[in-house]
Input
Amino acid sequence: MNKDELIKKLENLDLPEVELQSHQRRLKMALLNSGYWKGERTTMSLLKKQIVPVGGIIAIAAIIVVFSFVFKGATPQANAQQIAQKSYQAVSALTPEQKEALKQTVHIGDPLSVLQEAVNAEDLEVFTYDEFVSQYPDAMPPGPHPIDMSDVKVLRFTNPSGVTIALFIDQDNLPVLMIGSYGQPPVGSPRPSGGEEKGLNYRFDDGEPGLSEGGKAPPKE
Amino acid sequence: MDLNEEKELIKLAKKEPEVLAKVYGHYYPKIFGYVLKRTANLEIAQDITSETFFKALKKLWQFRWRNISFSSWLYKIATNEINKYFRRGKYKSASIDELQELGFEPGSLHNPETEIIEVEEKLKQHQDFIVCQQKIGQLDIKYQEVITLRFFERKQIKEISEILGKTDGTIKSLLHRGLEKLRASMNEEKTQPFGESRIINNASAHCK
Output
């Protein structure tokens, strides 16, 4: 038998058409009764069930971050993530003294953790200051705000504790104000200086090491 | 079912159990037939088919129409499960516990005996196929896959590429070499007896 004859033979082979109807029925019932239809198809439940290795999750997160850069601004959420990511990098680049000053002035605890929570938040949104104020008129603490808010971006997200956070990011990608759950006292209140409230912005004009004037971020090192 | 119909159905099947049942009814015979033709074992074919559909259901929400059709996606899952069976020489469904929780008892013990006899009789009527299947089963898995998909499932090269995740060129090359090996094996005129676990046995005809 040569190859062509073999091909012809295989092409003309009379193939059995076999079905096991009892198996088909039983399997169908099992599939239709499975957890898929009971809301068990969320990412987390599947991850838990399949015990995806932590490395896999980290890789997925890295891919998401990379994609957020590649397709920057492609969607509002991608844009928000990009702003959070840039801020994370900007804060990372600060000197320890500058980071400490940031913590003190913005009352932000660990700014890197907060920004990481923002990056990870599923509901992360970005607003201009005006959009934010018009949408959440009660969110801002009362009183005049000496900071120029015209170029501030507001990241709004829910942190892992379920608290809604509004994080204000300035032109230098640094946090300037943080507000916790609306309707409660602000988490990030203005930093008092010499008994006088200087404003919501953290200012680097007190002769602190490595800080510059005018509410601007210091040059990154 | 053409691709557009398939696309629409899958979209609905993600949300509607009735639509999923329709999709399942369409693909079950194809997948079960494919697995049976690859393994020649009724019990293993049932287990692998169950696992294939259960895995497909669990991953259905992830399924996106990219470079692979839903049909090829199912074949791909089935092929991976079949290869697990060939590599280990035995098969254990990874979802067996979940399936049993759902009241599904795998295995032919739960099929009516008359049905099993009927299926076995039906298979015995295809002796040419049985002998060819036996010969193909002696080849490397990589050749078994392409030959079975091409000649038993009547798949085009492009579909086989989708299922196996290989280029068209690689598939053609595997087919060429696989057929050469099969031809050599056929020409030896030696038929190996099937193992006891196989339901297809006592093949007397030849795939000439």
Remarks:
- The two ends of chain B are 34 Å apart (CA to CA).
- Chain B has a mean pLDDT of 82.
- Residues 112-208 of chain B form a domain with the Arc Repressor Mutant, subunit A fold (CATH 1.10.10.10).
- Chain B is about 65% helix and 0% strand.
